[in-house]
């Protein structure tokens, strides 16, 4: 069972979680969960947009490159161990859904599923993407976060719905 809520109703909580232990990005077919800590919620092109950032070194990268959409799942603190696991282990070496004991539910408006035991999820359709530009990025950010020059791809997801369960 799920209930659709207003798109930005849980914005503060979502940003607090991003800034804390993270939230789970689900992308790919078969789907792979990856913990994310960077992202923004806002309005662009008159659309409600969730931007997320994926380094090309992630297993998630080729998956989301092929995908039309992604989901973002918020988990309660009792899942902090699973969040840490999905943020340190790769889908290359682990079936993270199985090892975390997650059950997936079909997406309500998108093809990517969501985690049944999450309490809230966003469904997003990819409408734009680009790599960060090493030429124009602030030099101190470049030095601190990109010593390996593995610049993130930024994905702009038009939010199709936000659901609590
Ligand atoms: C709290 C936290 C936040 C993270 N945020 C991001 C992020 O926003 N983008 C990213 O590319 N990796 C991020 N990572 C790293 C990935 O989650 C990690 O490398 C993961 O193992 C990649 O999984 P995959 O290889 O299955 O895609 C984060 C890790 C943690 C623990």
Describe this structure in words.
This protein is an alpha+beta fold. The protein has one domain (3-164): Roll (Pnp Oxidase, Chain A). 21% of the residues lie in helices and 37% in strands. The strands form two sheets. Strands 1, 2, 3, 4, 5, 6, 9 and 10 form an eight-stranded antiparallel beta sheet that branches. A two-stranded antiparallel sheet has the order 7-8. Strand 2 (23-27) and strand 3 (32-36) form a beta hairpin. The protein is globular. The mean pLDDT is 98. Bound molecules: flavin mononucleotide. The site of flavin mononucleotide has 20 residues, from strand 3 and strand 5.
Topology:
Elements lengths: L2 E3 L5 H8 L4 E5 L4 E5 L2 E6 L2 E8 L5 H7 L2 E6 L5 H7 L9 H5 L3 E2 L8 E2 L4 E12 L7 H7 L7 E12 L1
Antiparallel strand pairs: 1-10, 2-3, 2-6, 4-5, 5-10, 6-9, 7-8, 9-10
The site of flavin mononucleotide has 20 residues, from strand 3 and strand 5.
- Please name the CATH topology: Pnp Oxidase, Chain A
For the record, the CATH architecture stands as Roll
Q: Which percent bin holds the helix content? A: 10-25%
C-alpha Rg (nearest Å):
15 Å
Shape: globular
Instruction: Give the count of structural domains.
Output: 1
Cα separation of the termini: 6 Å
Under CATH at level 1, the class stands as: Mainly Beta
CATH superfamily grouping: Electron Transport, Fmn-binding Protein, Chain A
Uncertain residue segments: none
* SSE pattern, N- to C-terminal: EHEEEEHEHHEEEHE
Strand element count: 10
Query: Could you give a short account of the major beta sheet?
Result: 8 strands, antiparallel
């Amino acid at each position: 069972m799920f209930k659709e809520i207003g798109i930005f109703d849980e914005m503060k909580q979502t940003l607090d979680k991003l800034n804390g232990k993270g939230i789970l990005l689900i992308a790919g077919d078969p789907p792979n969960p990856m913990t994310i800590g960077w992202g923004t919620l806002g309005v662009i092109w008159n659309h409600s947009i969730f931007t997320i950032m994926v380094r090309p070194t992630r297993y998630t990268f080729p998956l989301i490159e092929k995908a039309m959409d992604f989901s973002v799942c918020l988990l309660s603190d009792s899942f902090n161990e699973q969040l840490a696991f999905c943020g340190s282990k790769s889908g290359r070496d682990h079936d993270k859904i199985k090892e975390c004991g997650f059950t997936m539910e079909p997406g309500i408006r998108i093809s990517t599923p969501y985690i049944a035991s999450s309490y809230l999820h966003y469904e997003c359709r990819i409408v734009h993407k680009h790599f960060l530009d090493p030429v124009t990025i602030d030099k101190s950010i470049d030095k601190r976060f990109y010593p390996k020059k593995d610049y993130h791809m930024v994905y702009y997801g038009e939010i199709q719905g936000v659901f609590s369960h």
